[in-house]
Design a protein that fits this description.
disordered C terminus, 2 domains, 3-stranded parallel sheet, two-stranded antiparallel sheet, mainly alpha, 62% helix, 21 helices
Length: 530
């Protein structure tokens, strides 16, 4: 361990600062596992754990703590370089993300219609360039039904983290360079960002949920904890020691000589209780981030502060199973949501029972494969500069391809989905095993379902309206169009004759106002013309 005397300490202070690379802490991997586990459980079975989305907030605190510790340590050692910092971030984040984005693009290329592939391209563009939170805030809320089939929805949180990483090193370097108080700056950021979230979540809850400025306070809480561990004043050390002894006197009949164990144990246990309360009390209808967000944020802070001295941390979070799961947390997080979203999109139903178990097992297999075959080898490979450049160029290419898919209406030159052969046909038949309806993803595309330019009104009347009565009138976007093949099956097998009128359009109202029907949001309801 290197020892450096801090020459710019406060006047009259004789303390020294021991500066070393942040040591590996297995309980933080375990906390990662806990945060990702409750998020995945919420995504897969939200009725079982309706507040599980707060796991992202736990992860924000972890990220703020780890990144700030690395930056401050390098600054105080005189070794911080922006290129090296961002290079490490690229080598850490990009490999698994590029792989997942590429696999989703390949799946859509073979199996999805142009309108759905176009939306995927837009989401991939946002994920690759770390602006997914801004794109999602302009389209729909996190908890809305339309978001549940977006394979890239979960990348909003990665966007917030990366946006934090862009500004945070610059801020810390500036504070150190000009001798400003880091603690005062961190507390100010926390109060300002949290106050902004509390003010905005009633006015614009969707934007507040995704906006970086209303989330930075959570990362700053972890940052404040990291700074306290590196630059703790003497009065704070004495206060914590006194508090630990008082707690030991209250709890134990014969307190032992060990210092810090009682306070660490209480801190770790209290942190887990706060996270548990956050999961229990928070609902999708809650104003979030808000006061309830303090529960997981404070809980994660207390757990990290407790460290390995806490028995709860050692037994629950630092055990080998939790550490193993935590090391896979990033690729597992990347994989689990696309798998669930693709299932919903392909089948039109919510996964239930054994379907959930099978999908999560697949996510775990893919996450482990990604970690051991892609993420871990690239971390250990030499020639960091070349590796960083290649990864950056690959991510730019993936994002540009996603944007092109969206701009060119889903690349409609691709063969019709059900006419493809080979791998696409085999994959399509596997998906068909899960379908409750005979859903044809083409949905009479370019006639009754028009993803690009609306066809003429008379053509719709001729091709899309059955002569039988009574008439079932299907109007809306792709979610309405996907019901028509199932209705056709019911129509063919029913003893009672009925007709179907299909007027659907991709991602918007089924008619333009020039035809004479009012456009109301994503789904239009209008009387049948006489």
């Amino acid at each position: 361990m290197n020892r450096i005397v801090q020459i710019d300490a406060a006047p009259g202070s004789t303390r020294s600062l021991e500066i070393q690379r942040p040591r590996y802490r297995p309980e933080i991997d375990g906390l990662r596992a806990l945060s990702v586990f409750i998020v995945i459980l919420f995504h897969a079975a939200h009725r079982l754990l309706p507040g599980g989305f707060i796991g992202v907030d736990v992860f924000f605190v972890i990220s703020g703590f780890l990144i700030t510790g690395i930056i401050l340590t390098d600054i105080d050692r005189g070794e911080f370089e922006f290129t090296r910092f961002y290079g490490r971030r690229i080598r850490r984040i990009y490999p698994a993300l590029i792989f997942v984005l590429s696999c989703c693009l390949a799946w859509g290329w073979f199996l999805w219609s142009a309108d759905i592939y176009s939306q995927l391209g837009k989401s991939v563009f946002g994920g690759a360039y770390f602006i997914a939170n801004f794109i999602q805030s302009k389209s729909s809320g996190y908890f809305e039904n339309s978001s549940q089939t977006n394979p890239m929805l979960h990348l909003w949180s990665l966007g917030v983290e990366e946006q934090f990483y862009i500004f945070w090193p610059v801020i810390l370097v500036g504070l150190r360079k000009y001798g400003l108080n880091v603690r005062t700056a961190l507390i100010s950021i926390i109060l300002f960002s949290l106050g902004l979230a509390l003010l905005d979540n009633r006015r614009d809850p969707v934007m507040t949920f995704y906006a970086p400025q209303t989330r930075f306070w959570e990362l700053a809480m972890g940052a404040l904890l990291a700074w306290s561990g590196l630059d703790r004043p003497d009065w704070q050390r004495r206060s914590l020691t006194w508090l630990d002894r008082r707690l030991a006197t209250i709890l134990w009949e014969r307190p032992g000589p060990a210092v810090g164990l009682t306070l660490a144990g209480a801190s770790g246990l209290a942190g887990l209780v706060l996270v548990g309360l956050g999961v229990s009390l928070t609902r999708p209808s809650s104003l979030f981030p808000g006061w309830l967000t303090l529960l997981p944020a404070l809980g994660a802070t207390l757990i990290i502060a407790a460290g390995s001295k806490s028995r709860t941390n050692r037994w629950l979070l630092a055990n080998p199973a939790a550490v193993w799961f935590g090391r896979l947390s990033y690729p597992l997080y990347l994989w689990h949501w696309p798998i669930l979203a693709i299932f919903r999109l392909e089948t039109g139903v919510e996964p239930q029972g054994w379907s959930v178990v099978g999908l999560l097992a697949l996510a775990l297999i893919l996450g482990e494969t990604t970690y051991y075959l892609i993420e871990k080898p690239l971390r250990r490979a030499r020639n960091d500069g070349l590796k960083t450049l290649v990864l950056a160029m690959a991510m730019i290419a993936v994002g540009a391809f996603g944007l092109s898919i969206h701009r060119f209406d889903g690349l409609q030159f691709r063969p019709p989905i059900r006419e493809q052969t080979g791998l696409a046909r085999d994959l399509s038949s596997i998906v068909d095993l899960y379908k409750f309806f005979d859903v044809d993803p083409t949905w009479r595309k370019n006639t009754c379902f028009s993803p690009a330019v609306d066809v003429g009104f008379q053509q719709k009347l001729d091709a899309c309206v059955d002569p039988e009565r009574p008439l079932i009138f299907v109007m809306g976007d792709s979610h309405a169009a996907m019901l028509c093949p199932g209705l056709k099956s019911l129509q063919a097998g029913s003893d009672r004759a009925f007709g179907i009128a299909q007027f659907t359009n991709a991602d918007g109202p089924p008619f333009s106002t020039t035809i004479g029907f009012p456009a109301i949001g994503r789904t239009t309801i209008a009387p049948w013309p006489t």
